[in-house]
Amino acid sequence: MIKGRVYIISGPSGSGKDTVMKKVFEREPNLAFSISSITRAMRPGEVEGEKYNFISRERFEEMIANDELLEHNVFVGNYYGTPKAPVLKCIENGQDMLIEVDVNGAVQIREKMPEVISIFVLPPSLEVLKKRLTGRGTDAQEVIDKRLNEALREIACAKDYDYIVVNDDLEQAVNDFVSILKIDKFKTDRNIELINKILNK
Ligand code: 5GP
Questions:
Q1: 6-200 architecture in CATH?
Q2: Among 22, 42, 75, 110, residue to substitute to test ligand 1 (most atoms within 8 Å of Cβ)
Q3: Tens digits of per-residue pLDDT, 78-93?
Q4: Predicted structure pTM score
Q5: Whose CA is nearest to atom 24 of ligand 1?
Q6: Burial, 3: exposed, middle or buried (Cβ in 10 Å; 0-12, 13-18, 19+)?
Q7: Looking at ligand 1, which residue's alpha carbon is closest to its atom 23?
């Protein structure tokens, strides 16, 4: 069986990464999503087991100690991590999987799985990013500045990714993302088993 591919998606707050991702899954129903384990409190509207498993710090630290995580990071005082077993099972079964991680998580996954394909979602410009982060205009300037600095720190890591998707027009960004998934199917390393099969190896 040909192994599935792991794709990483990252992008700062204000890049519209979540919306792009949601639409990509509508277009690619066979693409699996890695549900992260996290220790922050559930926000209104979030559903246990949909995007995240909400777990205790004790359980998270146990997962670290037992080497159950592919990567993990602390973000604004909470743990975020990718459970290893579901990812390995998925790709062994020949299914592709998308993992959403921050830039630190991406570094850890690349070290363990050099064959991953990483995609960074960028806002089209600094002006648009600022506008998106300002949102409804209810946040204090200090909070907005903090988010902007964090976003710029993440964008500085975009050059380490395999592909960049600019989210200016949403439909275009989704098309671009899906094109990357499609073109990747033709990469030689994804077709070695087919070549060997034809050669009867
Ligand atoms: P939020 O709390 O807003 O849902 O997510 C905060 C940050 O954590 C976002 O940058 C998001 O991409 C990142 N994140 C989500 N899941 C994971 C994960 O499993 N591992 C890591 N390292 N970061 C994650």
A1: 3-Layer(aba) Sandwich (3.40)
A2: 75
A3: 999 999 999 999 999 9
A4: 0.94
A5: 101
A6: middle
A7: 101
- Bridge partners (DSSP) of residue 6 are 97
Distance 12 CA to ligand 1 centre (A): 10
Reading the block at residue 165, the tokens are 């998707």
Where do the domains of the chain lie? 6-200
pLDDT, tens only, 9-34? 999 999 999 999 999 999 999 999 99
Residue keyed to tokens 């033709």: 186
What pLDDT score does 76 carry?
83
**Of residues 39, 162, 153, the one with CA closest to residue 109:** 162
Cβ atoms of residues 78 and 38 within 8 Å: yes
Assign 136 a pLDDT band (cuts: 50, 70, 90): low
How far does residue 1's CA lie from ligand 1's centre (Å)?
Answer: 31
pLDDT at 128 over 90: yes
Question: Considering only CA atoms, which residue is closest to atom 6 of ligand 1?
Answer: 75
Report CA(175)–ligand 1 centroid distance (Å).
24
| Nearest CA owner, ligand 1 atom 9 | 102
Tell which residue, 68, 59, 67, 76, has the closest CA to residue 147: 76
